[in-house]
Structure formats: C-alpha cells, structure tokens
Amino acid sequence: MPIVLRMHHVGRSFDAPGGPVSILSHVDLELRSGEAVAIGGPSGCGKSTLLLMAGTLDTPSSGVIEILGENPWILSANRLARFRNQHIGFVFQEHRLLPQLNVLENVLIPLLSGFEADKPSAEKRAKELLDRVGLKDRLKHRPAALSGGERQRVAVCRALVLQPSLLLADEPTGNLDPQTAGVIGKLLLDVAAENGTGLLCVTHSTSLATSFPQRMTLEDGRLVKADLGLV
Ligand SMILES: Nc1ncnc2c1ncn2[C@@H]1O[C@H](COP(=O)(O)OP(=O)(O)OP(=O)(O)O)[C@@H](O)[C@H]1O
Ligand SMILES: [Mg+2]
C-alpha cells in the first residue's frame, strides 16, 4: 500500500521568553493507505501540534514531512490550500465550523477552494454522511443552533466529504456521550477502510483507542508504540 504520510525526524519548537521550547523532537511515522493509528499522550505533549503539521497547517522546525510522496511546503499558498482540501480531511479539537453557514454548507466547505470537485456527488455524499451521524434533519441549521456534540459530528462529515487520502482527527469524540462517540469512532474507521484512507486519530478515550488496529503515544517528543491503554 502506498505511503500517505511520512514524517521523518520531525521536530517542532516554539519561541518563548527564555528561548525556544522544544515540544516535539524526533517524530518518525509512516502511515499507509488503509492504516488507522490512534495517538495518545498527556495534555500538552504535542498531539495537536503533530496533527497540524501532518495536515500542513503548521510547519515543522526540523525534519521532513511528505504527503502522498510530495513536499507540500514548496507549494504556493493557493496550491497548498487546494492540495489540502483535495487530499486531507481534518477534524479539529474545536470544531471550527463557520457560524454564518448552515450545516450542509459547512460540510461542503472543502469544495470552496477552487479545485474541480463534482458538486452534485459531493452534496449527495454530504447528505449521506449527515444521515449516518443522525443529523439529516439539521441540514439548514446554523452551528449556533446545535449542541457541541452535534457540531463535532458536522465537523467529522466535513472532513470526510471529499474522501481524503489522509484523515486527521483531533479528539473527535471529546464532546460526545459514549454512544455517539462509538458511532463517530466507527464511522471514521469504516470510511477510512472503505476508501483506503490513512487515518491518524488523537484520543484520550481508551474505548476509541482500543478500536484502532494500531496505537501510539507521544513520549518525550517522540512517537512510540503503545501496547496498553492510552493516557
Ligand atoms: N503556536 C504556539 N506557540 C507557542 N506554544 C505553542 C503553540 N502551539 C502549541 N504550543 C505549546 O506546545 C505544547 C503542546 O501543545 P499541543 O496543543 O500540541 O498539546 P496537546 O498534546 O494537543 O494537548 P491537549 O491534550 O491538551 O490537547 C503546549 O505546551 C502548548 O502551549
Ligand atoms: Mg490537543
């Protein structure tokens, strides 16, 4: 299976008053098409930072990240935005829906970046996904009229609508009751398997993590295999 995401010796440090603080020092990862990996680790260890870099939304301080064999950081801002919308689905730790758009429009945001997607089939898929997460009667609602968990479900549908090669999910079930969390976790894994997507999912939930075939944890700025429950 082709490698969807390759991180090689990736480091990230942030400037601080006392000098740069290293958050990630040496992250190595190869994620292939159809593979699903859960990532755990204590709060503040750099999980969201890792995912943002994998999604080209943050830039590594050192090391190499390749997505589908390409280095996206050499692209112009416009082409990078298109690359991202075409190949990467992202479920953020906070939902990041646009308040002025309704549910269906929010799910269709990845189509707005100007690359040629088939709009009718994307809209059909958006409605199917919203149905799968129990939101088919909410298409015209604005995010402000939804509960936190409902917003998160919309964000999951947005990440899946264009059948990305790489799916990155940051605590996708953090705001959900256990039953809905189970539905979302299964949806992510099922859709990834159906489409041959590479899935990287940050979670503190042991039950979500144990449903993944592979589990890793961030320790001292590195990614290591986790055999037992996550933090
Ligand atoms: N843009 C930034 N500037 C400075 N420091 C940052 C920045 N982004 C993240 N950090 C720091 O990097 C560390 C890791 O943050 P990150 O959000 O990746 O943690 P996390 O593992 O996702 O935590 P949580 O489980 O609470 O979501 C934190 O100490 C945070 O303050
Ligand atoms: Mg985080």
Keywords:
231 residues, alpha/beta, six-stranded mixed sheet, three-stranded antiparallel sheet, 9 strands, globular, binds adenosine-5'-triphosphate, binds magnesium ion
Overall description:
The chain has one domain (about 5-225): Rossmann fold. The protein has helices at about 45-55, 75-85, 105, 120-130, 150-160, 180-195, 205-210, and strands at about 5-15, 20-30, 35-40, 60-65, 90, 165-170, 200, 215-220, 220-225. About 30% of the residues lie in helices and about 25% in strands. Adenosine-5'-triphosphate (ATP) binds near residues 23 and 49. The site of adenosine-5'-triphosphate (ATP) has 11 residues, from helix 1.
Strand count, sense and closure of the main sheet?
6 strands, mixed
Task: Output the helix-strand order.
Answer: EEEHEHEHHHEHEHEE
CATH topology: Rossmann fold
- Name of the CATH homologous superfamily: P-loop containing nucleotide triphosphate hydrolases
Instruction: State the secondary-structure class.
Output: alpha/beta
The end-to-end distance, rounded to whole angstroms, is 30 Å
Strand order of the largest sheet: 5-6-7-3-8-9
Beta-strand percentage range = 25-35%
Number of beta strands: 9
In one word, what is the shape?
globular
> Based on the structure given, which CATH architecture is correct?
3-Layer(aba) Sandwich
The hetero molecules present are: adenosine-5'-triphosphate, magnesium ion
Mean pLDDT reading: 91
Low confidence ranges:
none
- Rg calc: 17 Å
Q: Report the total helices.
A: 7
Give helix % range: 25-40%
The structural domain count equals 1
Q: Give the class-level CATH name.
A: Alpha Beta
